[in-house]
Specification:
The complex is a heterodimer. By secondary structure, chain A is an all-alpha fold. Chain A has one domain (36-300): ABC transporter involved in vitamin B12 uptake, BtuC, CATH 1.10.3470. Chain A has 14 helices and two strands. Chain A is globular, with a radius of gyration of 19 Å. Chain B starts with a helix and ends with a helix. Chain B has helices spanning 2-6, 10-25, 32-57, 65-77, 85-109, 114-135, 143-150, 158-176, 178-188, 190-195, 200-226, 237-247, 260-278, 283-300; strands at 152-153, 156-157. The radius of gyration of chain B is 19 Å and the shape is globular. Helix content of chain B is 74%, strand content 1%. In chain B, strands 1-2 form a two-stranded antiparallel ribbon. Chain B is mainly alpha-helical. The chains are: A mainly alpha, B mainly alpha. Chains A and B meet through helix 6, helix 12 and helix 14 of A and helix 5, helix 6, helix 12 and helix 14 of B.
């Protein structure tokens, strides 16, 4: 028993985390014959790829007890940069912006001591304004090489799938195979102890915010390639959706608990929910309500021992 | 002395600076009539902020404010319940209390994160209201609320008076009562508060129920001010109220902060939106300035 508690404590994976998407999958394949078609499954994959990438970034920040509300605005900003900068510099410019935003968020939180919610909300507001300033009306043209990255398929498998696999591989490697990843769990579990054991907490925290912003930037590159245009508000839902996804995946916002597998499951749950309601013909607005309900169900099945933000 | 000055909420200095700037750059904006109109515009935010600040003082957060206001607007204006107006208002208050109780239940009993719980209730409320409004669109606001939201006595609008009538008892209660002391104790150190036998669960529950009821009142003023229900109503309030609380000197997790600071911050934010509009700053510029201001304001008083 103690062993299993230890295990579940670190990854946050519980029965509910796995049972929810599995249940949805079974119910949907019974309710709608179109659900299991290859076309539909690859649709779902395409729809959740960006959210998965953003959520993995969110996971990295959540592990150290932080939160990043600015991911949606970063994503929007990225799409506007992609269509506004000359094609040769589009990618480097977007990535540089992502790194810079992450640095500002991280320094604001660690050095200036601003609460992560407030800091990232401030940058969210600022970046939303910046994105609207750069590219007020949706549109523009995306460099050709990008469109290929999102739409080609290899051996019948769509490109979105490879984006997902790459993101999951990188995140898993980072979190479970490197010292960096291990130390994130240590910081999240107890920041003071981690610092006393010689971990440069500030440096790690700033890196987490940078990783998160860069993840959002990559998701933004994917989205702009997929819809072949820039849109200053396209990312707006991603902030709350990514938090919902990681919460469903058993990640604790207090830090120290979470896993890549959980985030993948949480994202799939959200994706199945959206797709399923479309197929069954339920109002998309009820999808929002259903997300909220599922979120409450998910957290009820993952009772914590301490009260906290 | 410097320490004392630093402990004054930034909202006071910010308001003074903004007013002085407006006095030079846009004198019309600081005329009594316009100032009172801005105060009226700030009233819904100021009421919501009171609840948010209470939650934040017990180290919790309420992101469901927007959802509650949306639901209130729908209950009052869609005609889905054909009841006399006073009864409708009462139903809204009870509804708010119920939402607060649900939030509190998940936060204190399930020990879930307040961000996630209140986010979930907000999603549920807005999802249900949006899908219901496809069947029955929101309509005109009840007469009592339009009176509160739009009428003036002399040049004084009623809605700030309505705010004052809510603010004074709540602020005095927090300042004078044992409950208020408990709130501060939990804010300063929840673990110590718990160990010394402070009824943690009860205090947090009351804070959330109060916050949701205050959101309902905020919705009353907002619906009355707009004159009709809408699906856009109160969308920015959860995050703006959070900002106002921070600017108002309530620091997350130090047990410091009163009730007046956040109210002043609510006015400051509303005034700054108006000032930026009158200076001809467009939407992008406004957002960028807001973001920069929030970050700077929160930075200055960092404890460590």
């Amino acid at each position: 028993m103690p062993v299993s508690i230890m295990k579940s404590n670190r990854s946050g994976l519980r029965l509910a985390t796995i049972a929810l998407p599995a249940l949805l999958f079974v119910v949907l394949s019974i309710l709608s014959p179109a659900f299991l078609s290859v076309q539909n499954l690859s649709n779902i994959n395409g729809q959740i790829a960006a959210l998965l990438i953003v959520s993995l970034g969110q996971l990295v920040v959540a592990l150290i007890g932080g939160i990043d509300l600015s991911v949606g605005a970063v994503l929007s900003l990225t799409t506007t940069i992609i269509v506004s900068v000359s094609p040769d510099f589009a990618l480097p410019a977007a990535l540089l912006a992502g790194i810079a935003i992450g640095l500002v968020n991280g320094i604001g939180v660690t050095v200036a001591g601003v609460h992560p919610l407030i800091m990232t909300m401030a940058s969210m507001t600022f970046l939303q304004g910046l994105a609207l300033l750069i590219h007020p009306v949706p549109g523009g043209t995306v460099p050709d090489y990008l469109a290929g990255l999102a739409w080609t398929s290899a051996a019948g498998v769509p490109a979105a799938f490879f984006w997902c696999v790459a993101a999951v591989t990188i995140a898993s490697f980072l979190l479970s195979m490197t010292r960096f990843g291990l130390r994130l769990f240590a910081i999240g579990a107890n920041q003071a102890s981690a610092a006393r054991n010689g971990i440069a907490v500030r440096w790690y925290s700033v890196s987490c915010y940078v990783i998160c912003s860069v993840a959002a930037t990559i998701a933004g590159i994917f989205i702009s390639a997929r819809v072949s245009s820039g849109d200053a508000t396209v990312g707006a839902p991603f902030a709350l959706d990514s938090i919902t996804a990681i919460a469903m995946g058993g990640v604790q916002l207090a830090g120290g608990t979470g896993s890549v597998a959980g985030v993948v499951l949480g994202t799939i749950t959200l994706g199945l929910l959206t797709n399923g309601m479309n197929l069954v013909g339920i109002s998309p607005f009820l999808r929002t309500a259903a997300t909220g309900l599922l979120l409450l169900v998910a957290i009820s099945m993952q009772r914590r021992t301490v009260i906290g933000v | 002395m410097a320490r004392l000055l630093l402990s004054v909420p930034i909202a006071y200095a910010g308001t003074a600076v903004l007013l002085a700037f407006a006095y030079v750059a846009r004198p019309a904006l600081v005329s009594p009539v316009l100032l009172l109109l801005i105060v009226r515009q700030a009233a819904p935010l100021a009421i919501a902020v009171l609840g948010q600040s209470l939650c934040m003082r017990v180290l919790s957060l309420d992101l469901s404010i927007g959802g509650v206001i949306l639901a209130v607007s729908y209950i009052l204006t869609s005609g889905i319940l054909r009841l006399p107006e006073p009864l409708l208002l009462l139903i809204c208050v009870l509804f708010g209390a119920a939402v607060g109780a649900v939030n509190a239940f998940f936060i204190t009993r399930i020990k879930a994160s307040s961000v996630i719980v209140t986010l979930a209730t907000a999603l549920i409320l807005s999802g249900v209201v949006f899908s219901l409004s496809q069947l029955r669109a929101p309509g005109e606001a009840p007469a009592i609320l339009r009176y509160i939201g739009q009428t003036r006595i002399g040049i004084v609008p009623i809605s700030p008076l309505f705010w004052l009538a809510i603010f004074l008892p709540v602020a005095l209660f927090l300042r004078m009562s044992v409950f208020g002391r408990y709130v501060d104790a939990i804010g300063a150190n929840p673990r110590a508060a718990l160990i010394s036998g402070i009824p943690y669960v009860r205090i947090v529950t009351i804070a959330h129920i109060l916050s949701s009821i205050l959101a309902v009142f905020s919705g009353f003023v907002l619906v009355g001010f707009v004159g009709a229900g809408s699906l856009d109503i109160g969308r920015d309030l959860p995050l703006t109220s959070l900002v106002a609380v921070i600017l108002g000197g309530v620091t997350f997790g130090s047990g410091k902060g009163g009730s007046l600071g956040p109210a002043v911050a609510a006015f400051m934010l509303t005034f700054s939106f108006n000032l930026l509009t009158s200076l001809g700053v467009g939407e992008p510029g406004k957002l960028m300035l807001q973001g920069a201001i929030i970050a700077l304001a929160a930075t200055r008083r960092s404890p460590d």
